[in-house]
Amino acid sequence: MKPLFLILCCLGIAVPAFSQSYNLKGKITSASTKEAIIGAAVWLQSQTDSTKKFPAAAGPDGSFQLNLPAGSYTLRTWAFNFAAHSRTVVLQQDTDLGNIALTDDVKQLATVQVQGEKSTIELKTDKKVFNVGKDILSKGGNATDILNNVPAVNVDIQGNVSLRDNPNVRILINGKPSMQTQNNGLAQIPAGNIEKIEVITNPSSAYEAQGSAGIINIILKKNAALGFNAALQAGLASPRNNTANLNASYKTQRVNLFTNIGIRDQTLLLLEDLARVNKNPYNLLRQHNRSDLNSNSVNLYLGTDFYLNEQNTLTASYFRTKRNNNDTNDFLYNYFNAHGSADSTISRQEAYREPQIFNELELNYARTFKQPGRKWTTYVQYDFWHDDENQDIRQSGGQPGPLNIITRDIESSKDIYLQSDYKTPFKNGQLEMGIRSQWRAIRSEYSASQNGKLLDGNNNKLFYDEDIYAAYTQYARKWQQLDAQLGLRTELSSIHISDREQTLNKSKQYINLFPTLHLQYSFPHDWSLQASYSRRINRPKFWQLNTFSGLSDQRFLQRGNPNMDPMYTNVAELALLKKTGLLTVNPGIYYQYTTNYFDAVIEPQPDGTFVRTWANMGNEKRYGLDMTTTYSPYGWWRLSWDINWYSYSQRGEYAGKTYSADNTTWFTTIRSGMRFPKIVNIDGSFTYRGRRQEVQVTTAEQYRANIGFSKDFFGDRMSLSFSVNNIFNSNILLQEMDVPAYSLSTRSQREGVIYTGNVVYRFNRKKSQTDRMPEEK
């Protein structure tokens, strides 16, 4: 009877225990960065009844919470690009598991060696992240070289950046605007200083509303190791692109001192051939342009972190770039008459000199709290830059005889940014809010003379002032597998443009609301569905408003339009993230509707020349399908493929003329990365862009291929790399325009295959340890 009595007693205790429910909570974080992993999957399964399964997903602060019957469970957590974590949980009371750290997904390459590098491409819930630390193809290059290797991003031979073939993209550095993104400044940021590129196609309200195509955020490196450490990099390239860079830091428990010094000496050869036909009366101009571009620059970055205590950090920094451009441009014009016979020849030589100086001062304060996920940051940034463009143009042949044109354009800007952000978590959600102000003052004083006499209309000073005030709030909430984030941003814009000669005086003020909505539903077995909506704005850039046109080529002038208004875009996206074993797939569809659309317009002049200007035209509808896929068939081999198919329709009117364009095209990039640590590492890529039809211009298909090799020596203290970019010398831009009165065709090419060799030597530093650059905001 005793055993039976004991069994009955145990059952009597067990029954009420299993009928009782308890709360189980925890927080999913990254083991390497200590940051919350948003949307991480959580899966609990009863160890006594396998049919009882309880799924969940981590919220905006990485936390999750479930109410479960008492018992023993198997807890499994995982996220994209992280190794799965599994453990046993015995639930007999309310339990807080604390932080559950997930490690980066690693692959074993050999018996005693593990490859622990991050994926080249990471697919996250709200962005795609391109880690450049292992990107052999861009070593020794600059930010534009790296961007050309990022999915859905393209940089043309003029340095113009587009996202999904849409040029209306906002580029940030460490989450904030910077004048380094203007005036071809991206070419001055060494690739070795960049940690990763974030591509955000549909940003939340926490980001500024500028950029209908989305945001590209360039994250610069930072260092967190104690003591002194440094890395020295040097690179040689053909055509000439020689670089040297020193990055060093010294850190204690209370202070971190850091500096970066870099130099670059670069030359480029650009070739361009144009054919212009006037149809009535018929005449032909064949033009050949050759530009030998030479530049050298010196970058200096220094600053310090003060760790006031565990919760308060103050950062002060100064960045300076000094760049000298010395270019030679040659233009040859061959005219043919109505019979097709040579009529006349004109040659034109230009000596171009432009010294530039850019300065940036920054003060940043960060406050964390004992409550996890609660944070307050405030920063103020002051940019001031100056450049001095000088042209000495000499022309021979034709009428009215020899010409000597001297021009000068002195530009300067003072920019102040102030931003403060606060976020705090709740039981099942998170609240964020912030304010931002920007004050920009640009001055452009230009003068021009021909054969010693001032040119009418080309001696003036332009004043441009732009003030933007913004505030936002957004709330994220979690309902089991569904995460939702609703945000609203308002921006007040005040713009004034005038000139010294009082021919121009325009002021514009407008206030806009920009709502955002992001939804994500997490399903079992490593997949989730995302939907998002946002409203965006594109304000005209200063150079699109500047009425002064450079006089390098008087037969094809480019002139801004100060009457332009901003355009507005509504963006909707639907995306799927799916990971099955070694394969990750991220397909998505998107739709963009733009009002007050503006674009470039090329207009013939009565004297047979052309002027390219900008104008608001009408509306644009754009929709597309894109997909990013990564596949690792073996631990040493990683493949990725991204493809974007899109179509758009443009309708508009300008100066009494109706413009329209309909186009369907696509582009794709295939990448392969192989890692043989004892032998060599190999990266390769191939990119193809299909034919594109714009309002006036048709652009032919393009392709390029790159390959790179790297090898580590002395453990991981020294690394050598060698890359060949533009293998087939195919970086060619072919464009055509054909209207009833005239036709225009151009062929532009950045000449030459690019060979780059690079060496990095580390002092008291491991290869996986990054450099200290401005803090990410």
Automatic annotation (TrEMBL):
- Which GO terms of the cellular component aspect does the record hold? cell outer membrane
UniProt entry keywords in alphabetical sequence: Cell outer membrane, Membrane, Receptor, Signal
Gene3D superfamilies, sorted: Carboxypeptidase-like, regulatory domain, TonB-dependent receptor, beta-barrel domain, TonB-dependent receptor, plug domain
Which Pfam families does the UniProt record give? CarboxypepD_reg, OMP_b-brl_3, Plug
Sequence ranges assigned to domain TonB-dependent receptor plug in this UniProt record: 140-214
Question: Locate the Outer membrane protein beta-barrel domain: which residues?
Answer: 367-738
Q: Where in the cell is it found?
A: Cell outer membrane
Tree of life domain = Bacteria
The residue range of the signal peptide is: 1-19
Query: InterPro entries in the record, alphabetically?
Result: Beta-barrel_TonB_sf, CarboxyPept-like_regulatory, OMP_b-brl_3, Plug_dom, Plug_dom_sf
Name of this chain's protein: Outer membrane receptor proteins, mostly Fe transport
